[in-house]
Amino acid sequence: MSDEPAVVFITGTAGAGKTTFVRGFSDWMRTTGYDPAIVNLDPGLEGKELDPDVDIREWVRLADLQDEYGLGPNGAQIAAADMIALKVFEVKQALSELRADYVLIDTPGQIELFAFREASKAIVDALGGDRALLAFLFDPALARDPSGFVALLMLSATIEFRFRVPMVNVLAKADALTPDQLEAIVAWSDEPDRLREAVAAATPTPDVQLSTELFRAIEVMGPLTGLVPVSARERTGLDGFYRECQRIFAGGEDLEPSHEPTVE
Ligand SMILES: Nc1nc2c(ncn2[C@@H]2O[C@H](COP(=O)(O)OP(=O)(O)O)[C@@H](O)[C@H]2O)c(=O)[nH]1
Ligand SMILES: [Mg+2]
After folding, report:
1. Which of 4, 89, 92, 232 is the most exposed place for a label (fewest CB within 10 A)?
2. Which of 119, 110, 104, 117 is nearest to 45 (CA)?
């Protein structure tokens, strides 16, 4: 097995549940006998739910940028996105001292600041090397609606296309969905025909041309987009996410637990 750690970047739209996921999955890993390191790359992270081992706020803080340069919240976010890339070697150094074999990385609140800035590719390359994986969280607030689900599929594909690293699609906050909603969303991800029917039923006057072209793309992407339902709040589905990561990192081979599992 490689000496380089496996590095999982958690991405998703604002409020999709990235930070809560990093917290929930790292707790799950620890009680299961693994010892992940947590990196926070969100310069605007507030609250105490995450206790990162390496924290970008040590070098770049949103509030400081606003004060220092008289920037508004959006300007400060953009300035911060590029400054983070300049600090990536400090982050990498701090991380290598931890000697973790699994690293979970929380990314900035707004997806476009991570996915659509040139600097982010350098960050993924520097921290993940050839052992990087991106998790993309589907927010049920959007995913429960067929056209919202299509939009998230496209966004996920766009991010995969930009970064060219393996992706795992996650249906976050599964506890916020009814069993019927959950079943329907998972079916949409497995069977494009079910999604096509749902979109048609929800759209009284569909743009047939656009739908046809979009679904052609979705059918081609289909086998790549299997969705893993997870509730970070209720700690369900995290084992399924871990298995998916392992399938990618180690061809299914399990990591050696670093200590005995905690008995609950
Ligand atoms: N019901 C439910 N709510 C969640 C879950 N994960 C996150 N949330 C809520 O969703 C909101 C956004 O979560 P956060 O982790 O800050 O999202 P981020 O902006 O993507 O980092 C917060 O109010 C969380 O409490 C979950 O698994 N279930
Ligand atoms: Mg967050």
Report:
1. 89
2. 110
Q: Is the pLDDT of residue 262 over 70?
A: no
Dist. CA 63–CA 81, nearest whole Å:
14
Handedness of CA 243, 249, 250, 255 (dihedral sign): negative
Give the domain ranges of the chain.
6-175+226-246
- Encoded tokens for 247: 């399938």
Residue-level pLDDT at 257: 55
Q: Taking the complete model, does pTM exceed 0.85, yes or no?
A: yes
> What is the rounded distance in angstroms from the CA atom of residue 38 to the CA atom of residue 74?
26
Residue in this structure with the two tokens 């069993």, named with its chain if needed: 179
Tens-place pLDDT, residues 100-136: 999 999 999 888 888 888 888 999 999 998 899 999 9
Lowest mean pLDDT among 19-33, 51-65, 170-184, 239-253: 239-253
| Cβ neighbours, 10 Å, residue 263 | 5
- Ligand 1 neighbour 14 (Cβ under 6 A): yes
Q: Which fold has domain 6-175+226-246?
A: Rossmann fold (3.40.50)
Q: Rounded to whole angstroms, how far apart are CA atoms 249 and 224?
A: 16
List strands edge to edge, sheet with 167-171.
Answer: 54-55, 37-40, 102-106, 6-12, 132-138, 167-171, 227-229
Counting ligand 1 atoms within 8 A of each CB, the residue from 19, 20, 152 with the most, and so the one to mutate, is 20
